[in-house]
Amino acid sequence: MTQHYWGPQRLRRILQSGVFHLYVGKKKKQITIHRALENAFPKKVLESTTIESVDEKLFGRCCEFVYSGDYSDPCPLPGSPGSNSSQSEDNETRCQEEAKGWEPSNLSWNVFHPKGLSLNYGIMQAELSHTPRSGSEGNLSNNPNTSYAAVFLGHADTHRFALRTDWYSLSVLSFYRLLRLLENFTLFEERTGDIVQLLIFVFEESESIKNLENMLRDYIIWNVKILMRNADFKRFLDRNSSLEQAVFRSMWN
Predict the structure, then answer these.
(1) pTM (2 decimals)?
(2) Taking a C-beta distance cutoff of 8 angstroms, is the pair 1, 129 a contact?
(3) Statement to judge: residues 51 and 166 lie in one domain
(4) What are the Basic and acidic residues biased-composition ranges (predicted)?
(5) Same domain, 62 and 38
(6) Separation of alpha carbons 146 and 148, rounded Å
(7) Is residue 1 part of a domain?
(8) For residue 78, how many C-alpha atoms fall within 13 Å in the half-sphere facing its CB?
(9) Cα angle at 216 between 139 and 205, to 5 degrees?
């Protein structure tokens, strides 16, 4: 996929190509697309003119991608102080003891190690044929009560839809955008709930998405000290014992 720098003639052909309509989401919102761009969508997406199983906001990101080669992030939301589910003082002390002395930068490999990030970005930029524009990660709020859960879930949902429809270029872009956001996201204790929501979506509410699962496993390993302070995260690990074993195996190997 390349960025869409359309010249006047190409743009004129698109605008003069006529349109077709899709009806998206439970409310069957009408979305209009130029016929010249019909082949930019995977065949699975356009099997029917009515697509009730897809959220209209998600499909809007897909259309933006077809027209511009990228898509806009959902907006972060102001959170409420104290909305994070913290553990009791005794339990928190125990969890901190479990992670005492843990230094993730000593790992031989992790996606979030500078070497891992550099390698992954290089591969994805080569696949995309360009460096995607900055999204939310370029202007992150330092307010610990600002929630980025919707932004994380937007990228993950886009990636899941791209995989379901064999939309390779969109799957690469959405993975890239999520990785960039996680890399630059300051994980305040108040924000650990945002990560828990993302983990639940990927590991418990979706079919197996191996590349996201591997990315998030490495994110957990990289940030386990602060994540272990969140009671909901601990309960999530309890429900996903194989992931818990993989995390702590990586820590002690």
Answers:
(1) 0.87
(2) yes
(3) no
(4) 91-101
(5) yes
(6) 7
(7) no
(8) 0
(9) 105
